[in-house]
Design brief:
Elements lengths: L4 E7 L2 E6 L2 H20 L5 H32 L4 E7 L2 E6 L6 H28 L7 H21 L7 H14 L2 H28 L3 H31 L21 H12 L3 E6 L2 E7 H4 L24 E2 L5 H11 L3 E6 L2 E7 H15 L2
Parallel strand pairs: 2-3, 7-8
Antiparallel strand pairs: 1-2, 3-4, 5-6, 8-9
């Protein structure tokens, strides 16, 4: 979902990051508040004051989104779900899960926690705003607290629309899941509702665009496209996980992988392996014994004119848990490992011996045939 992100801080063990696209949202919000919202609501203030209010409003939005996603993460942790962290991006924020909720109850509890937390912090901000007299030097601060408070109510309301993957869509999925006991069916219904809501926002955005509201129309259309795409992707991901569940890695691995001997020169490695097979990483082995891994990026540390003077064994690095897997590992777990690490090839290792190589393509080919043969 995300591109390059910047890690900010940890909150009770959860890594909070911002995707670079969130900067666009922060600038847009600051500009809109400073040039549109606050001048319209509070007249005759200095231009600098409006800008201070705009910046403070953007910071308040940041705090609100982190607070909202934090409570998703806290409830998920309570039910034993692993969370990668909280990331803010152009359309808001997301608590990144590495797995589906274990039960309908866990899904419902985690989903509803976000909107409830937004309502709570919204009331807190509004109470602070009421406590600050408008006719004092702190009146502008009170205005910002009040605005961010109502913004949290809007955030809670929008998220409760029953359209997956919004919180309301997850609540809908949890109810359907509890009623029928079928997660895939519940996801298909909730994702269809999400796609329909996405189309509604796209069409509404186009009408606003035609009506002259360029920024509002474009923004609604973009949000609609995001929700539509995310809902479809969520259902496809569930199909993939369920299609692979119960299948062991051994079934998909190539048992005669390309391996590199440790005693060849870097030049021979580049010419005979890197340029020939085009892999980013190669296992280095002595017979069946896995000695380590060699990545194409490691070669950059050696000047080209010295390639004949150095051997592969000098650049070996441990393969590590991020790019190795046991042959009895569930294929769905191996796919999740690939998604989390970005590695499309995993070394299949048992007791220090290299048994084969697992690729994402091999698993996807199997899944394509299985879904085509068995249907949904």
């Amino acid at each position: 979902m995300f591109g390059k992100s910047i890690k900010l801080f940890k909150l009770f063990g959860f890594q909070v990051s911002i995707d670079l696209t969130w900067i666009i949202l922060a600038v847009l919000v600051t500009w809109s508040l400073a040039h549109g919202v606050f001048p319209m609501l509070y007249e005759d203030l200095e231009t600098a004051t409006y800008w201070y209010m705009g910046i403070a409003g953007a910071v308040g939005l940041f705090i609100s989104i982190v607070w909202h996603e934090f409570w998703h993460s806290m409830i998920a942790r309570k039910f034993g779900m692993a969370m990668k962290g909280i990331t803010l991006f152009i359309f808001g924020g997301v608590a990144e899960m590495t797995e589906e909720p274990p039960s309908a109850k866990a899904e419902f509890s985690m989903a509803i926690a976000g909107p409830i937390s937004s309502i709570v912090i919204g009331f807190i901000f509004i109470v602070i705003a009421w406590a600050i007299p408008a006719d004092t030097e702190f009146g502008a601060a009170g205005a910002v607290f009040g605005f961010v408070g109502y913004l949290n109510f809007l955030l809670a309301g929008f998220n409760m629309v029953p359209a997956f993957p919004l919180d309301g869509g997850r609540v809908l999925r949890s109810i359907l899941w509890a009623v029928k006991g079928n997660l895939r069916w519940a996801t298909r219904i909730a994702a269809s509702a999400g796609a329909a809501f996405g189309w509604f926002l796209i069409i509404f955005g186009v009408f606003r665009l035609i009506g002259g509201n360029f920024v509002g129309g474009i923004w609604l259309a973009l949000i609609g496209m995001f929700i539509k795409g995310a809902s479809n992707m969520s259902y496809r991901q569930l199909q993939i996980k369920e299609g692979l569940k119960g299948e062991h890695v051994r079934r998909f691995m190539k048992d005669q992988p390309v391996t590199v001997p440790p005693d060849i020169t870097i030049r021979d490695f580049v010419e005979d392996y890197l340029y020939h097979y085009h892999f980013k990483m190669f296992p280095v082995s002595d017979g069946y014994k896995l000695l380590g891994c060699l990545r194409s990026t490691d070669i950059k540390e050696i000047p080209r004119e010295e390639w004949t003077q150095h051997k592969v064994e000098e650049l070996l690095k441990s393969c590590g848990t991020e790019n190795t897997v046991h042959p009895k590992t569930d294929a769905a777990d191996a796919l999740a490992q690939m998604s989390n690490t970005g590695n499309r090839r995993l070394m299949v290792v048992e007791n220090g011996e290299l048994l084969g190589v697992l690729t994402m393509r091999d698993m996807m080919d199997f899944l394509s045939v299985k879904l085509d043969f068995e249907g949904e």
